[in-house]
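Readers of this paper often ask what the protein records in our data store actually look like. Below, we set out a record of this kind in full and without editing:
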Amino acid sequence: MNVLRRLPLLFVLLSAAGSSYAADVHIGVVAPQDGNFATLGAEIIAGANFEIQAQKDTATVVDEPCTEDGGRAAAEAMIAAKVQVAIGFLCTETLEGALPRLKDAGIPAITVSVRSRILMEDAVKNGWPLFRLAPVDTAEAAMAIDTILKNWAADPLALIDDGTIHGRELVGAIRTALEEKGLKPVFTDTYRPGQDQQIALVRRLKKAGATRVFIGGDRSDVAVIARDAKSENIPLAIMGGDAMRAADQPVPLQEGVQAIALPDYTSLPEAQPTVQAMRAGGIEPDGYILPSAAAVQIANQAAESAKAENKAITDKLIGTAFQTAIGPITFGQSHELTENAYRLLEWRSNAFVPVTTPSN
C-alpha cells in the first residue's frame, strides 16, 4: 500500500513534468481520496498513474465525494484544467452531477465502475458523453441465459436463489427468459443462506430430478451445496454468478463448479505486458487497477486518433477497436461495450479458468 499512499505526490510530479516531454493528452482522473471508497479510489489512481506515465501523458486528479454537487465541482475542475478525457468515476451521483457540464465542454467520461442502466439511458437521451468499461447491469443474466440455452437446454434444470435482491433478480431474469424459450425448470426455490449444511436442499433437488442447477447466491453457500451434493452422491452440475469471485472459505469450492463472472484480468494474455511491468514497479494489479490503466489507454488512443483526423474525441470513442490491458474494447452507438464482458468460468486447481468448450 506504500505505492498507493504516494500517488497524490506522484500525480503532482507527473503533471509538473509534462512539459519536459511534450505530452499530447491531458487526462482527468476522478476517484475518491477519502472515506469508505478511498481504497478503491487508490486502485483507480494507481492504474491510471502507471499508464499515464507509460504514455507520457499528463493528468489532473480530482477527488470524488460521490455526490451530485461533488460531480459538478469535479467537472468544473477538469474544465478549468483543460482535460481532454476524464476517467474513473466510481459513483452514479458523481456522473449525474458532472455529465451535463462535461457535455458542454466536449469532455467524454469513461467510468470503470458504474453499471446503472437508467443512468446510461439518461446519458443517451441527453447526449451526455458517457462511456463505460463496466458491463451493463443486465449483462450477467444475459450471459447466464445464453450459456444455459447452449449447454444445458436438454437437461433437467433447477433455479434457486438466496432471497437477496441481487440473487432473486438474477434468477428471476434467467427464469423468465428460459420459459419464453420453452425451457421450464423442474425445480425452483429460495433457500436460506449462511447455513452450515444444505443436505435437505440437495435431496429435494434429487427428488425433483434436477441434474443442473443455477444458484443466485454467494460463494460460501454454493460451496456448501456442492459439498453436500457430493457427500450424498447426488450428481449435480452447479453454476453460480459473479458473486462466486470471492474468498474460497470457509468451505472450499468443489472442482468443476462453474460461474458466470468477469475474468481475472491479470490472467488474460493481453494483460501480461502491463501486469509484468506493474509488478516490476511494485504494484500488484488488483481491483480497478488494470481497468483504470485500460481506460487511460483508450483515452490516449482516441485522443491521438481524433487529433490526426481532426475529429472530436467522443466521435472516435464510438466504433473504434481499442487494444487495452484488459483485451480489445469497442463501444457501440449506445456507448456500451459491444461484447459481453462476462464469461463462463470453471473452478480448477484453486482458480477460475475460462471454459472454452460446452460442458457435459
Notes: The first strand starts at residue 26 and ends at 31. The chain has two domains: 2-135+267-329, 139-261+342-354. The domain at 139-261+342-354 is CATH 3.40.50.2300 (Rossmann fold). The two ends are 44 Å apart (CA to CA).
